[in-house]
Amino acid sequence: MKTVLLPTDFSANSKNAVNWALQFYQNEQVKFILIHSYFSPQSGSSAVVSINEILRKQAVEDLEKYKKELVAAFPDNKNEIVFKEVYGDVLHAIKSISEELDTVAVVVGAKGMSAMEEIFIGSNTSAVVKEADAPVFVIPENVVYKKTDKVALAIDFQDNLNASALNPLKDLLVNKNAELRVFYVEDEDGDIPEEQQNKVIADLESKLNQKIEVIKINEDDTLSAVQNFIHSHRIDCLVTVNRKKSFFESLFHRSFSKQVALHTDTPLLVLHD
Predict the structure, then answer these.
(1) What SS3 state is found at 164?
(2) C-alpha torsion angle, residues 206, 212, 217, 221 (rounded to 10)
(3) Range(s) of the domain holding residue 107
(4) End position of a domain, from candidates 110, 140, 170
(5) Helices of type H across 105-193
(6) Residue 17: inside a domain, yes or no?
(7) 108 and 185: one domain?
(8) Which H helix or E strand runs over 210?
């Protein structure tokens, strides 16, 4: 059974992500774990030890209350909801729990700026996306859950993509009976040889078990181009693969990557290779 980790600081955006997750997985058998991390200034004094215990008890009380709220808000939810308080930051909490489990997914909220901007500029969400080994759904704060009919995969025509990295995408397509759109943002620094393109497409078709047509995007403002693609194709979930020299890694190093250029209400699924 899959375990879905739901880190929360009880803010509106983290609760929105939790609500999204409960609806997204409502027809699957999963176990939800609400995670709240806490910490206090480091010191060897007995006073700090007492403070840590106070914070731990408060975390447990808050999680118990929140679980009751979720049970009342989602009476039709058949999946188990448990909770765990963890001392340390949210990334440590996710990693420590993930190590003990086989199949894990993470759902996190993105606050304020768009989800894509958070990943570029840096945040707790960014740290989880880049460092967690599990697939991560990033849910912008204003997203309202809706049926996932169309999924977009961003590729960069690198080969040797690990088949297991794509398993969450395959599960998503099957469980939601969703259509897949694959796109590539053409790089102004050079064309990808046709032989390489064909090789990568054939590899994807084999691993995803479906015919693939790559839509190529060529615009000066790449982030806006991605936004336009999402809207024009009515994409319900954008999927990216976090790997060296990836499409999004290259965007991060470009001058426009930190511009306020992409305000999307589309969930992101970040896979790891």
Answers:
(1) helix
(2) -60
(3) 2-140
(4) 140
(5) 115-121, 124-131, 167-176
(6) yes
(7) no
(8) none
pLDDT value, residue 79: 97
pLDDT tens readout for residues 27-48 = 999 999 999 988 766 655 555 5
Q: Which has the closest alpha carbon to 93: 138, 49, 42, 36?
A: 36
Question: What pTM value is reported for the model?
Answer: 0.86
- Which one-letter DSSP state was computed for residue 191? P
The segments of the chain whose pLDDT lies below 70 read 40-49, 112-126, 187-190, 244-264
Here the CATH number for the domain that contains residue 107 is 3.40.50.620
Residue 218 shares a structural domain with residue 88: no
pLDDT of residue 54: 87
Task: For residue 109, give the nearest of 270, 267, 271, 272 by alpha carbon.
Answer: 267
CA angle in degrees (0–180, nearest 5) for 97-111-181: 80
Q: In the prediction, which pLDDT does 259 show?
A: 33
Same-domain check for residues 199 and 247: yes
Phi, psi of 234, rounded to the nearest 5 degrees: 55, 50
Dihedral of the alpha carbons of 168, 172, 173, 174, in degrees to the nearest 10? 100
Alpha-carbon distance 245 to 82, whole Å?
Answer: 38
